[in-house]
Amino acid sequence: MSNFPKDFLWGGAIACSQADGAFNEGGKGLSTQDCRYFDSNWDFNTIYKKNAYVSDMKTDDFKKALACKDDKDYPFRRGIDFYHEYPNDIKLFKELGLKIFRTSICWSRIFPNGDDDSPNEEGLRYYDTLFQTLKENNIKIFATIMHYDIPVNLVIKYGGWKNRKLIELFERYVEVLFTRYKDIVDYWLPFNEINAARFAHWDGISVIAEEEEHLDQTVFQSIHHQFIANAKAVALSKKLIGKNNIGAMVAAFTIYPGTCKPEDVMQTLTDQRYSNYFYFDVMARGYYPSYMRPLFEKLNVHIQMEKGDEELLRNNTVDFLSFSYYASQIATVDEDFEITTGNMTGAVYANPYLKKSDFGWSLDNMGLRITLNKLYDRYQLPLFVAENGLGAFDKFENETVRDTYRIEYLKKHVEAMSDAINDGVHLIGYTMWGIIDIVSCGPLTMDKRYGVIYVDRDNEGKGTNKRYKKDSFAWYQKCIASNGKEI
Ligand code: BG6
Does the pTM of the predicted model rise above 0.85? Predict the structure, then answer.
């Protein structure tokens, strides 16, 4: 018998910058993700090892991107053209039985420059119809307000999130969204993976790292601004929506000690705090935890708080917690441990007990159960798995993909959620990443595919862009229809 709650939210997730395309249509301004460069002559190592999340935007590359008006070397500018294709894609989502769909709203469609006097009505109308179409198909909406992309003008004029001005501009953007979509959107996330600032400076906080004199200071000050922006969004949701449907989202780095040596165990606790708990603690408990003090001292970081910041954080904590979960990691004080390409943080220590994906990410379904238990133990708030899935090289043959490896991966992760529910965790939903093939975020390729729906488009943007069901489509359809029982 299935132990998933009756109203469990089985879903799928994407992000606007990786899917929409149409970068210069509908009055949209250029976004920071539209500026990430990809050279189709790069080899596997360059793409998947060097061009990972950790690679930063360079001043010259940013200038070149601003001057370039086409999408040839900028895959995010074309995505999978979800902007035009969404009516057909939603038909497939309905056939799949999705209960909820997570996507992000593109700030530069709503405010092309981020600081415009008034919002772009055409951008708002796009989301009116996208959201209505989802609702007509009985699919709930999980909207991310910022998933790594902001209008480029906010970098040119203000320097990205290091500037406190962005809080005010973000608040204005959020107010427009809440006013317009409060009755149609079911769940809100102000920030995708708010901990990204530390491992992906461009994606997380839109700063050009090589221009920063004291990068750690910039990073933590920017994170502070995002915490305040998040608290302001929570405050606005109380005032304008009143449904307790706003959450936090962190890239979950579940960390195991490399050995049972007490030093490794302590290192694990420290890494876990710095990479994950810090963010959840501020947004769920409402204050900066004392364990951050030694790190700030070591890095010579001094957070500049304004009067009222602490109170704002304390009074505006989130209603639920969500996270992306792809892989676990290892902490050790022993530097001879084997290294793997890890997940979005680049190289990490390899776990000898786990197999790896095509891209070196450790495959660890038990890690999902552990993550869910740890978070529920600590916060006692409803949990939502906002991202989880397998990026793989798919072989497209006879109009389908026989992706038994993806089915295997998903099955094990569904079992892990079921076990966590048995353990007593309050889990409300699961939005599989990315339900349809999209441009991958770290390497910017199409051939790192996650979907149960195949999109015929390659790394250079060539192909028919037609959609096909993979074998995993029927598997997920059955899983949803049986509420997680038939897997
Ligand atoms: C998450 C991001 O970190 O990982 C997504 O929120 C991203 O945007 C996903 O796509 C998987 O990473 P990648 O690099 O394989 O696309």
Answer: yes
